[in-house]
Amino acid sequence: MNILLVDDSRLARTELRHLLQAFPDVTVVGEARHVAEARTRIQELQPDVLLLDIHMPGETGFELLASLEAAPHVVFTTAYDEYALRAFEVNALDYLLKPIEAHRLAAALDKARTQLRPAVSAEAPPPIPVSEEPAATPLTEHDQVFVKDGEKCWFVRLADIRLFEINGSYTQIHFHEHRPLIPRTLQHLEQRLDPRVFFRVNRQQIINLKWVEGIEPWFSNSLKIRLRGGPEVEVSRQQSVRFRELLSL
């Protein structure tokens, strides 16, 4: 994977180079200090991915993308969190806040690898059937996810989500004072979320274990859990057994 670093800060570019040394399949093919230089370098080097700052002298990272007929895949690297929603509107792979954390960079590179896998040729023999598609890259509690409900949007850290629960044909997410609905099943979410943090308590709900405030015995050897900020959830009898096994010494 060939990467071009676009950032007006020499220190930021040096730090990214240092972090990228941990990934043997990544080559930093060049650097650019501003948008004009980035346009030239993109044309010369044809990178697979841009690690792109937003605020730079002259034009912004968004203006760079708007001016390109065909842009490489983009991971934004910036000190400002207020542009996250706009970043996803231009199909950015990820949005990393400075100082860049190694695990967040690794997750962004995984997304890039997924996008860069060669498509199967129409003349190639059909692949051997498998029971299901490979699971997407697992999300950790440190990841941030884009949530849209009608005209409202959020960019929320998974650690701040205390509860997912079925609401009709949607799943409702509980974080801060918000309760947006998303068109995802709990089964889909359970496959994406870290099982060490997110636990399926029953057919209707998944909780964030780090938001558990209290536990008490309930009917038929089941449990009831109280989450910080509410609500209380009832753990099914089968899942109560799994819960005790998971969290016991």
UniProtKB/TrEMBL annotation:
It comes from the Bacteria. Residues 147-249 form the HTH LytTR-type domain. The modification 4-aspartylphosphate is found at residue 53. InterPro entries: CheY-like_superfamily, LytR-like, LytTR_DNA-bd_dom, Sig_transdc_resp-reg_receiver. GO terms for molecular function: DNA binding; phosphorelay response regulator activity. Keywords: Phosphoprotein. Residues 2-113 form the Response regulatory domain. This is Response regulator transcription factor. It comes from Hymenobacter telluris.
